[in-house]
Amino acid sequence: MLSKLKKRLQTKRNDSTESEVEVEKKATMEDGYDAKMEAMALAEAGAHELAHDTIVLGQMEPPKILVVGNEDTFTEPVLNYTIGLAERLGYEIVAMNVNTVMGHSGKFLSPFRKHLREEFEKRSAEAFSVLQEKLKDKGIRCEHVIKYGDFSKAVEDLHHEMKRIEFVVTEPEAHPERSETEVTIPVFSMQR
To answer: Which of 1, 85, 128, 141 gives 92 a disulfide partner, CB atoms 3.0 to 4.6 angstroms apart?
Structure first.
């Protein structure tokens, strides 16, 4: 098979009427990461067109920003920041609520725990509807996910379940080890 391909390429190379084949080096993961960081910096600086141009367009799965609420809510500053970032970069938004208290306890739940889960899901859906209302006229796609268990594990699991989650925006309370003077709205880059 390789010898046939090699002969074919040599024949094409010898044929002067055919155009030459050009080989381009594909971007490495590091190049992609650098481009994303550059785009984020440009977007934050107000150079929206330049930021958009640095993002690779035409890929099958659009890039996403994951916004993680504080239990069953999303605060106004975090929503506004996430929407602004998604608008400047041309990303979609995935909103996630994580219930860290209930966790998983098997397939079967007691009636009370089932009721608590349903209430959590109801309040989370109401919080998500606020985000949907804000995005109504902006043309930004969004979806909602609810997870139970450890916060970091929920983010990691979702990162493996969904393609192209590139940034995570969290509530400041989600990371109490950081002081409020250090960072107002934590934003993390997700690279595989």
So the answer is: 141
Considering all CA atoms of the chain, what is the largest pairwise distance in Å, rounded to the nearest integer? 79
CATH code at position 136: 3.40.50.620
- Sheet containing 187-189: order of strands: 142-148, 92-99, 64-68, 165-170, 187-189
Where in the sequence is the domain holding 185, given as residue range(s)? Answer: 30-189
Residue 17: strand, helix, or coil: coil
| Number of structural domains the chain divides into | 1
Cα–Cα distance measured from residue 120 to residue 13, given in angstroms and rounded to the nearest whole number: 66
CB-based contact 95:125 (threshold 8 Å): no
Task: For 81-118, write each residue's pLDDT tens digit.
Answer: 999 999 999 999 999 999 988 765 555 667 888 888 89
What span, in angstroms and rounded, lies between the C-alpha atoms of 9 and 112? 70
- Integer-rounded Cα Rg, in Å, for the chain is 22
Residue 165 pairs in a beta bridge with: 64
